[in-house]
Amino acid sequence: MADTKRLVVTREGLQKMKEELEYKETTEKMRIAEQLKVAISYGDLSENAEYDAAKNDQASLEQRINELKAMIENAVVVDESKINTDAVNFGTRVTIIDLDDEDAEEEAYTIVGTSESDPANGKLSNESPVGAALIGAHVGDVVFAATPGGARRLRVVNIAL
Q: CA dist 109 to 2, 83, 123, 126, 138, Å?
């Protein structure tokens, strides 16, 4: 893997990945092992739907475990003490208002990497249309974001950690 991509994450994001890996390697592996044991006890594996399903679950689990290990290995944690809040950047919490929506209220998002993205919970990927448009903006700036729902004009109201 000479061409590995560094994964920029917050300290919280790295911790969540480690917790998920631990859960998958322990609890999930034991659950699937039990499913396999029960399915095998039914006999004839050639026509055993439970066995096939358990093997598929096992393969999916192993794939996710390998993904998590690679993500953790390639993770670069952003040092919050070095984050500048003069402009929107990775790790900053930005408050915006949609100028094209007369009923819009201020929304606040933390700019994170794609692996941590969760817009419903206030975490916006730095590679998303809105996140990318906001990077580098200052308080008072209006940015244009080409979203799947159409172009949006967003005013930066506040930038914090």
A: 34, 16, 5, 11, 15
Task: Kindly state the tokens that stand for 57.
Answer: 């679950």
Beta-ladder partners of 150: 147
Q: pLDDT of 24-54, one tens digit each?
A: 999 999 999 999 999 888 888 788 888 999 9
- Res 78: pLDDT: 86
Pairing relationship of beta strands 93-98 and 107-112 according to DSSP bridges? antiparallel
Question: Rg of the chain's alpha carbons, rounded to an integer?
Answer: 21
| Amino acid at position 58, single letter | Q
What count of residues does the chain have? 161
